[in-house]
TrEMBL record, chain A:
EC number(s) given by UniProt: 7.-.-.-
Membrane topology (UniProt): Multi-pass membrane protein
Organism domain of life: Bacteria
Functional description taken from the UniProt entry: Part of a membrane-bound complex that couples electron transfer with translocation of ions across the membrane.
Residues that bear FMN phosphoryl threonine: 185
Cofactor(s) annotated in UniProt: FMN
UniProt protein name: Ion-translocating oxidoreductase complex subunit D
């Protein structure tokens, strides 16, 4: 009888792309839960909406490309992109924004560049930037964290706001803090205060801050950090990029803070505000758009960290991860070209 | 090295990058002692198995005993193969090989007689043997590396550089395989004896026996054996290393034990390190102390689809299907039969293939153990492969370029340093068969390199040929020059006579030429007849005769060529005869040309040629007429006449050349039409040239400048020869033997032609030299007897000028050579 022939190796680890993506999604859940706890049902609605749009777009594109729809949907990559967009945008942003952003991410950023594995830019961040530059007002309108808010939106109110039905619900009422002031994100607040001549210490006394970090945001970041550590443990991601990002941000912000503590945010505030932990473990670690060699990935991560610090401090936008990630994406091929590991048996030069 | 030795003694281990931890599954086979299987009915022994050059030592029908060498050879790379059992050689023929390709290899098929009788074995006392004797015994025992690569062991035991460290590889990192494990457990003493022999041969500072920590029993047994062996204390140790695939790879093991890397493209001996497998050490012991050649080895037979997994002593050459039958193999649909381990082994399509010296495992897994490969998905650049790569490559970049068939870029990412261990494919979440891509890329690169090398060689051959041709040309010229000088040196005073004779001849010629000119200006045929008459009657007019003869020869050649181009096969017989004719012409000399002159039919061409000759004669006559008749001035006219003659000769030669060229071209263009057809014109043109040369030889007796013509004729002949050669080369590619024979005929003729031309040239030169001083003597007839060297020199200069002029004229002539009428109008 004829026997089956195949090229070696004949065994594989059986850790497939879909499994890796699945693990990443699962590790996002703690952060998502905490985010919902502080900012209401809106985030969950956005995530579900994004997933729906992402899967539809993925299926439609696969159909157009004459590829197998099931294989593509089952790799979970579209779903991961959708969840990342969902958690990144303001919880009560109107529905058409997330639809537009997600469709842009899947159709244009991912598939027009060749699909999974071929896209140059991180789809979630590209979508975020598109929305941010197109609709800056909506994209920077965060509601007050539930612990310091006058009113927190219920599920129905969230849905009404997102889908723009029911005239009596007003976005502004959920932005009022217990002090009766409209609340922005901690980073935004600090940035505005510093530009108005206040010192960091003065700004930190505001209700949005909890001594040294932003109310709610600290816990959200902590939850993403925990999820990220589990990811590391599961070896779904490697430590290089995350460490690079956190170290880069920490070192840059420490230097800045030591030089002028009065008009700079502390490293702690940088590390536990905004999207820091989410980006460090779930966004920057997207392998497709990152550098490939271990050393290259550390450099890639550190670049993001430093860029985030610069944009947060000097840029016009309060948070900077989307821009920093996209800029680092641009640099990834360059990093790959120049940072190659020394092959066994080759001299160092 | 001292610090390294210290660290070796401390058992320091270094980290090898990358690597994976696949399921080991060694428990299937490592629990039972090494067993025996019943003898197979036939054994398949590939010859040669290792190394290239060998001659068979047996023939079909020979009776062989177990251990009888089947091959012999003298090359250092030759490694004999031995009969694995006693029996009869029933066939020596290509059979499927134990290789992924299953390409047939020459195989000695031995029908076992079932007795398994050993040939005579000569045990040795180790102390009685010299180093060389030991190495010879290892070689004649046919020992190759037993770890899988099957590199001839005697070469590794005879290194050029000093060896500081010998690593005995008992790592066996591939999953499933336990052959070395069992061997170490059961034959540790024998392995140590083998290590002792290696120690004696290489005298290393340290020997390290490396064993993975998943084989504690083996490590214990080896440690016990080390404690008992007689090797110097401290020079040998057992080092247990952490289990990780591929720690057993030579380069990785060296890195783990010493922290050093084998430079890319180099061998461990460069670092003073040699790695031997434990199985090899065992075989060395068997070969040297017991005289047993390598005819059997331990093979792990494992996988869920054999009922009796375990390790077995299998004669080399045992068919795999026999082994599987004996171990109760139950195949399933899409069964894989893997030779080697699951990481690097190759799957067999056909199991009628033999166990080889490097075969350490037969793995027949169930589909639950090792399923079929899942479909390849898109690379997400996760970098897991780069993390797993023990060679620190960037597998995803290699894949990227290999898939795009940008092999040069893949090479720039050090593709050649890939050891094909399979770690990258193992960890790939997208199920990409990375190693397969690398293999394809590697073979493509190898093929490209081979092609480049071939092209390089072809270019070298071409250059060498050009150089050779140039050299031959120079040699011919040098020879001619030398001959000329020799003759000049031996010249005597009797030259006076030669001068007188020459003058007489010139006078006669003048007369003849005048006659020809007046006789045949309008009516061509009679004129030719007249010419013929002059040729036969007047010995003093060889030039005209020669011209006619040459013209006729040319005409004939052309005719033959034309005939040939149009000829069918029946015509080719005729042309053959023409060929013979021209060959005859080559063989004969003066008389032959005369015969041609008289016998050749007077065609249009002949007439034209004759007309040319006439025109030339006329010109010469005119010149003579204008010259004053005073005897003192005869010399001038002579030289003038000579110049004219020279021109004429040159014209003739040029025409001949043109003809030859044309004929040759025709021959070339007709090369497809058949050899006889094409070859004949070439031969004819050669004959033509020959005729010219012969004519000119005659003429040279009267004319100094004919030497020039001869030279040219020689060149023409050389061209013709070259053409003939070319045609011969072209025809060498044609199919029928008959054609090839005719090529040989032509070659032979070419050979005949060349010496005769050389001879002709010699004579011509002699005569030319003889005539040379005559110019001087003609200028001062009274003092001809006392030829000063200065005068000679002058004469020579004059001759050179004349030659140059002639050459110039010849060039001009060549330009006009296409139309004969233009020559006539001159």
């Amino acid at each position: 009888m004829a026997f089956k022939i195949a090229s070696s190796p004949h065994v594989t680890r059986n850790l497939h792309t879909s499994t890796v993506m699945q693990r990443v999604i699962l590790c996002l859940l703690p952060g998502l839960v905490v985010q919902c706890a502080f900012f209401g049902w809106g985030t969950l609605v956005q995530v579900l909406l994004a997933i729906l749009v992402a899967l539809s777009c993925e299926a439609a594109v696969m159909k157009l490309r004459n590829r197998d729809i099931k294989t593509s949907l089952s790799d979970n990559s579209a779903m991961l992109t959708a969840i990342l967009i969902g958690v990144a945008i303001p919880p009560l942003a109107p529905w058409w924004m997330i639809v537009m952003g997600t469709a842009f991410a899947i159709v244009i950023v991912k598939h027009l560049y060749g699909g999974l594995g071929h896209n140059l830019f991180n789809p979630a961040m590209a979508a975020y930037v598109l929305l941010l530059v197109s609709f800056p007002v909506q994209m920077t309108t965060w509601i007050a964290p539930s612990t310091v808010a006058l009113h927190s939106p219920s599920l129905v109110e969230s849905l009404q706001l997102i889908f723009n039905v029911g005239a009596h619900v007003n976005m502004e009422q959920f932005r009022l803090g217990i002090d009766g002031m409209t609340m922005a994100t901690p980073l935004d607040t600090l940035k505005t205060d510093l530009s108005m001549g206040l010192t960091t210490t003065e700004s930190l006394t505001k209700a949005i801050f909890d001594g040294s970090t932003g109310v709610g945001w600290f816990w959200v970041n902590l939850a993403y950090l925990a999820g990220g550590l589990v990811l590391l443990k599961l070896k779904a991601i490697r430590w290089h990029i995350s460490t690079g990002v956190l170290l880069g941000l920490f070192v840059a912000s420490s230097i800045g803070f030591l030089l002028s503590p009065d008009n700079q945010a502390s490293p702690l505030l940088h590390l536990f505000s905004g999207a820091t932990m989410l980006a460090a473990f779930f966004i920057a670690t997207d392998p497709v758009t990152a550098a490939t060699s271990p050393r290259g990935r550390i450099i890639f991560g550190a670049l993001i960290g430093v860029l985030v610090y610069i944009i947060r401090t000097k840029g016009g936008y309060p948070d900077a991860f989307a821009f920093a990630v996209l800029l680092a994406n641009l640099c990834a091929p360059f990093i790959d070209y120049y940072v190659r590991p020394r092959t066994y048996g080759h001299s160092t030069n | 090295m001292l610090t390294l030795l210290d660290q070796l003694d401390k058992g320091t281990l270094w980290r090898s990058p990358g690597g994976i931890h696949p399921p080991e599954v060694k428990f299937l086979s490592n629990a039972t002692p090494i067993g025996q299987l019943p003898l197979a009915s036939t054994y398949l022994v590939p010859v040669p198995q290792v190394g290239e050059n060998c001659t068979l030592a047996v023939k079909v029908g020979d009776k062989v005993l177990k251990g009888t060498p089947l091959t012999q050879g003298t090359s250092i790379w030759h490694l004999p193969v031995h009969a694995p059992t006693s029996g009869t050689v029933v066939a020596i023929e290509p059979r499927a090989s134990n290789h992924a390709s299953a390409l047939p290899v020459n195989t000695c098929v031995i029908a076992a007689d079932g007795k398994d009788t050993w040939c005579e074995l000569v045990p040795n006392q180790l102390d009685d043997l010299s180093h060389q004797q030991i190495v010879d015994k290892i070689r004649s025992a046919g020992i190759a590396g037993m770890g899988g690569a099957a590199f001839p062991t005697h070469i590794k035991l005879n290194p050029v550089s000093e060896i500081d460290l010998v690593i005995i590889n008992g790592v066996e990192c591939e999953p499933y395989i336990s052959a070395d494990d069992r061997l170490m457990r059961e034959y540790s003493q024998d392995i140590l004896a083998g290590i002792g022999i290696i120690h004696r041969l290489l005298a290393p500072k340290r020997i390290v026996i490396a064993i993975e920590d998943n084989k504690p029993e083996a490590a214990k047994a080896m440690q016990a054996a080390v404690n008992q062996c007689g090797l110097p204390a401290g020079s040998i140790r057992v080092t247990v290393i952490p289990t990780k695939y591929p720690s057993g790879g030579e380069k990785q093991l060296i890195q783990i034990i010493t922290g050093r890397e084998v430079p890319s493209g180099s061998i461990p001996a460069k670092l003073g390190i040699v790695v031997h497998n434990v199985g090899t050490a065992f075989a060395i012991h068997q070969a040297v102390t017991q005289g047993k050649p390598l005819v059997e080895r331990v093979v792990t037979v494992t996988g869920k689809n054999v009922s009796k997994p375990g390790n077995y002593w299998l004669p080399i050459g045992t068919p795999v299907d026999h082994v599987l039958t004996a171990t109760e193999f139950t195949p399933e649909a899409e069964q894989k039969v893997i030779i080697g381990g699951p990481m690097m082994g190759h799957a067999l399509a056909n199991i009628q293939v033999p166990i080889l010296k490097g075969t350490n495992c037969i793995l027949v897994p169930s589909s639950q153990e090792i399923g079929s490969a899942p479909e390849e998905k898109a690379c997400i650049r996760c970098g897991e492969c780069a993390t797993a790569c023990p060679a620190l490559l960037l597998p995803q970049q290699l894949f990227w370029h290999a898939k795009a068939e940008e092999y040069d870029k893949a090479a720039s990412y050090n593709l050649k340093d890939c050891i094909e261990c399979g770690c990258c494919s193992y960890v790939c979440p997208s199920d990409i068969p990375l190693v397969e891509y690398y293999r394809i890329a590697k073979s493509a690169l190898k093929q490209a390199a081979d092609e480049k090398q071939q092209a390089e060689r072809a270019k070298q051959r071409f250059d060498a040929r050009l150089a050779r041709l140039e050299e031959e040309k120079l040699a011919r010229e040098a020879k001619a020059k030398e001959a000329a000088e020799r003759r000049q040196a031996t010249m005597t005073g009797t030259d006076k006579n030669a001068v007188a004779e020459a003058m007489a001849r010139i006078a006669a010629k003048k007369a003849a030429a005048a006659q020809a000119a007046t006789g045949g200006a309008t009516i061509e045929q009679p004129a030719t007849a007249e010419l013929n008459a002059t040729a036969t009657d007047t010995t003093a007019a060889p030039k005209g005769k020669a011209a006619v003869a040459a013209a006729i020869a040319r005409a004939k050649a052309k005719k033959a060529a034309q005939a040939n181009t149009e000829s069918t096969k029946t015509h080719s017989v005729e042309t053959d005869s023409a060929q013979i004719d021209s060959s005859a012409n080559v063989d004969e000399t003066e008389s032959a040309t005369d015969v041609i002159a008289q016998e050749a039919p007077l065609s249009q061409k002949d007439k034209v040629a004759a007309a040319i000759a006439r025109a030339k004669a006329k010109k010469a006559a005119q010149q003579t007429d204008t010259a004053p008749l005073e005897p003192t001035e005869t010399a001038d006219s002579t030289s003038e006449l000579n110049a004219a003659d020279d021109k004429k000769a040159k014209v003739a030669a040029a025409v001949a050349r043109a003809k030859a060229k044309k004929a040759a071209q025709q021959a070339e263009t007709n090369a497809e039409n058949g050899l006889n057809q094409t070859a004949t014109p070439a031969v004819d043109s050669k004959a033509n040239v020959q005729a010219d040369v012969n004519d000119d030889t005659e003429a040279a007796a009267t004319d100094i400048n004919d030497a020039e013509a001869i030279k040219k004729a020689k060149v023409a002949a050389a061209v013709a020869r070259a053409k003939a050669k070319k045609i011969a080369a072209a025809s060498a590619e044609s199919k029928t033997d008959a054609e090839i024979e005719s090529v040989d005929v032509i070659r032979a003729e070419a050979n005949v032609a060349s010496p005769s031309i050389a001879a002709t040239l010699d004579t011509a030169t002699t005569e030319a030299d003889a005539v040379l001083p005559s110019q001087g003597s003609a200028a001062e007839p009274i003092e001809t007897a006392q030829l000063s060297s200065e005068e000679l020199k002058k004469a020579r200069i004059a001759a050179t000028i004349a030659k140059a002029k002639a050459k110039k004229a010849a060039l001009a002539q060549e330009a006009n050579a296409s139309s004969d009428s233009s020559v006539t109008n001159d």
